[in-house]
Amino acid sequence: MGTWSTTALNVMKSALVDPVERDHRQSDAAFRKRRIVVAITLVIGATVLYFSLKVEPGDPVFYALTLLLAGVWTVGGLLSGPLHLGRIQVGGSIRRPIVTPILIGLAVGGVFMLGGLVVRQIPPLADFTENVLAHARVGSLVLIVFIALLNGVAEEIFFRGALYSAIGVKHPVIISTVVYAIATLASGNPMLGFAAVLLGYVMGLQRRASGGILAPILTHVSWSAVMVLALPPLFV
């Protein structure tokens, strides 16, 4: 039991706490360019997000706007400068993070599921949650799942990729989480903002530990899959 718990603790420390050595330095000019691109992308992305969640569930415009949003985050992230996949310490060697971030995403999804059981008993909060989940019940479930996963990848390219790198060395986890939450609140839904704080902090820790966006991407898409497929039935 002791060996198992020690191994699990070491795995979590590698994934969330202990950073690997890397050299991702950029010139002052590249840093300024990244910050400018990030600022412009944030304004455009937040605006598109606001209008996308104002669309009635089932309206094809919703799909168009959410696909546009994924494009905004992705293009902004890639235009900002070089991005890295990252590596973590696994069993005495440095590897790409694959299994651990997926398990973290599923675990965080499980926590949100338990939270959903509580939220559905509180009418105001249940209403905010239902406003988002309604899109998963109306229209094409396959398309909704695709859009959710695509936006998960796109958000990580931008928020844990471009934005995180644009912050610098002082408190990037906290600052990127706060900015992510504020941008998400542009939707007008406080429940999405709350989710962004919790999820953003976990993925910020992964970004700091691994030095790249692969771990946050895998965690985000795993979490998104749980939310889209498993959470809506709780609010029926």
UniProtKB/TrEMBL annotation:
<keyword id="KW-0812">Transmembrane</keyword>
<feature type="transmembrane region" description="Helical">
    <location>
        <begin position="61"/>
        <end position="86"/>
    </location>
</feature>
<feature type="transmembrane region" description="Helical">
    <location>
        <begin position="132"/>
        <end position="150"/>
    </location>
</feature>
<dbReference type="Pfam" id="PF02517">
    <property type="entry name" value="Rce1-like"/>
</dbReference>
<keyword id="KW-1133">Transmembrane helix</keyword>
<feature type="transmembrane region" description="Helical">
    <location>
        <begin position="36"/>
        <end position="55"/>
    </location>
</feature>
<feature type="transmembrane region" description="Helical">
    <location>
        <begin position="98"/>
        <end position="120"/>
    </location>
</feature>
<keyword id="KW-0472">Membrane</keyword>
<feature type="domain" description="CAAX prenyl protease 2/Lysostaphin resistance protein A-like">
    <location>
        <begin position="139"/>
        <end position="225"/>
    </location>
</feature>
<dbReference type="InterPro" id="IPR003675">
    <property type="entry name" value="Rce1/LyrA-like_dom"/>
</dbReference>
<feature type="transmembrane region" description="Helical">
    <location>
        <begin position="189"/>
        <end position="206"/>
    </location>
</feature>
<feature type="transmembrane region" description="Helical">
    <location>
        <begin position="162"/>
        <end position="183"/>
    </location>
</feature>
<feature type="transmembrane region" description="Helical">
    <location>
        <begin position="213"/>
        <end position="235"/>
    </location>
</feature>
<protein>
    <submittedName>
        <fullName>Type II CAAX endopeptidase family protein</fullName>
    </submittedName>
</protein>
